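Sequence, please.
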């Protein structure tokens, strides 16, 4: 039986426009965000949580009316230790599901009826595009150049030129050092994941050879700095750790200090300003365009010692000159390739 909705909503004005169908107790609230209107679907839904108890949220669940694999939860970083937390929940099948959210020793459990993914009105219908059959020559994009960084910034704001789909022609197969990986009888250990029908492919440029001189306009000395213009790579290893020792080395304190040391050196761009803890004393900053992480470049990274003092900064950000949409093979096609023995180790 489906758990009845709670009356009211979380004590946060920002949740007023989310939904009026909440599950709740004194520690946690959970509700579907628009446009689902209280109806749960297989294949992935967006769920908002509100936490009165501080701590990191975890989500688990199981199907009650039939055997099935567990649900998958996506819980992004960047939210506070309490209050609102956005999540995604992917139910592998329809049916009656029990969902449990936990924060420290507090938990909220509710039961929902999950409808088939095919009934979801927001489900995107993807029309596959044909792959190109010719290769574009680099000269076709020779008029694209890296923008000039603004005063006080080492890198420039990226405004890649929007090109038609498949604009770069055939993309050569990535050559992996380990070659093909043969598995005698592969089995899926988790439910099939969701994936977009297409992705952005970026054309990377490079800054001029004298780009490293930009640092002299920002910092007082180049002592401890390494710079590689071709890759727009910069690394700083100070002779003495940066900042005073922290009284308490917490994630929030390291995030705040990482932002500070990057801003002071002109390295933190607006599209790269959200810290992401790595589970160690290292804070990462991924570039995002249109809210989506861009992995064409490596993340900015700030490392700290046990006292919360910064010991190293490293980042690589080649300019994004152009972008074009390319189709992805479906998950079913990828799985069939694995079954045929075409799987490959993947190194980043």
């Amino acid at each position: 039986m489906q758990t009845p909705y709670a009356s009211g909503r979380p004590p946060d004005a920002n949740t007023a426009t989310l939904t009026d169908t909440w599950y709740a107790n004194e520690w946690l609230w959970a509700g579907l965000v628009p446009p689902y209107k209280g109806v749960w679907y297989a294949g992935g839904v967006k769920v908002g949580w509100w936490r009165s108890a501080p701590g990191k949220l975890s989500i688990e669940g199981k199907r009650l009316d039939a055997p099935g694999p567990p649900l998958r939860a996506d819980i992004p970083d960047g939210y506070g230790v309490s209050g609102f937390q956005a999540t995604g929940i992917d139910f592998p099948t329809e049916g009656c599901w029990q969902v449990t959210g936990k924060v420290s020793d507090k938990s909220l459990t509710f039961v929902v009826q999950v409808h088939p993914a095919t009934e979801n009105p927001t489900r995107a219908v993807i029309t596959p595009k044909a792959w190109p059959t010719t290769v574009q020559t680099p000269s076709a994009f020779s008029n694209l150049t890296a923008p000039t960084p603004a005063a006080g910034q080492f890198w420039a704001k990226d405004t890649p030129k929007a090109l038609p789909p498949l604009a770069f022609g055939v993309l050569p197969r990535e050559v992996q050092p380990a070659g093909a990986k043969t598995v005698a009888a592969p089995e899926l250990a988790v439910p099939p994941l969701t994936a977009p029908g297409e992705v952005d492919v970026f054309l990377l440029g490079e800054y001029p050879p004298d780009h490293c001189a930009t640092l002299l306009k920002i910092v007082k000395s180049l002592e401890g700095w390494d710079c590689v213009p071709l890759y727009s790579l910069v690394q700083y290893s100070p002779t003495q750790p940066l900042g005073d020792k922290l009284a308490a080395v917490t994630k929030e304190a390291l995030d705040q200090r990482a932002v500070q040391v990057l801003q002071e050196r002109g390295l933190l761009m607006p599209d790269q300003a959200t810290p992401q803890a790595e589970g160690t004393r290292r804070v990462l900053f991924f570039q995002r365009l249109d809210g989506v992480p861009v992995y064409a470049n490596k993340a900015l990274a700030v490392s700290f010692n046990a006292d919360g003092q910064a010991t190293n900064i490293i980042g690589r950000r080649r300019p994004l000159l152009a972008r074009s949409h390319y189709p992805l093979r479906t998950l079913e096609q990828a799985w069939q390739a694995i079954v045929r023995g075409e799987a490959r180790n993947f190194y980043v």
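The domain at 13-119 is CATH 2.60.40.10 (Immunoglobulin-like).
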